Amino acid sequence: MMNDIFESGELPTMEVYEAAHSVVFDYMEKKRCKIDVVAADLGTTKNVLYRQLNPDDTLMPLSIDRCIAITRLTGDMRILEAFAKVFDMVAVKRKTAEADIKDINLLVDRANMENSDVFRVIKNAIEDGAIDGKEREKILKEIDEAQVANAKLKDTVLHIAVRDLD
């Protein structure tokens, strides 16, 4: 059991629990339904879903299967993004439609803007010779946004390159 290893507040996947909670809550708001309806759509009961969404309940933890089921039901990728963040990765959905040069032009502009934002916030943060907690969070947020923009650009370039080789 996880509680044999971790003390309260030490669960390593808190970001995943927070994302799952937010996804379920937003889905309930969007569909104007209660948690028992969401639970039924997931093939479980509201009590089980409550327990699985509670990070302190180590006897019935949130499973990967439940995370996948919630993501499929809601179409919301925040849980997968939280998993990626835990492993210091970026998750970007692959394009399914044909990409063209206009897509690359738009995406390279977006990537350039995001990378410029990283440059700007870092330069502003180090002006006084130190980076405080608030500045650190802002820098990390901008880096995450730049990584997503660069990953989308890379995926589009790879998609076009594969298409052009055929």
Percent helix among the residues?
55-70%
Structural class estimated from helices and strands: mainly alpha
Distance between the termini: 51 Å
Shape: globular
Largest sheet: number of strands, sense, barrel closure: none
Helix count from the secondary structure assignment: 7
Secondary-structure element pattern, one letter each: HHHHHHH
Q: Say how many strands there are.
A: 0
Assembly status: single chain
Portion in strands: under 5%
Query: Mean pLDDT, nearest integer?
Result: 86
Radius of gyration: 20 Å
List the helices and strands and how they pair.
Elements: H1 14-31, H2 35-41, H3 46-52, H4 64-74, H5 78-86, H6 101-126, H7 133-165
Helix pairs in contact: 1-4, 1-5, 2-3, 6-7
Describe the structure.
Helix content is 67%, strand content 0%. The chain has seven helices and no strands. It has helices at 14-31, 35-41, 46-52, 64-74, 78-86, 101-126, 133-165. The model has no long low-confidence stretch (mean pLDDT 86). With 166 residues, the chain is mainly alpha-helical.
Give me a quick take on this structure.
With 166 residues, this protein is mainly alpha-helical. The chain has helices at 14-31, 35-41, 46-52, 64-74, 78-86, 101-126, 133-165.
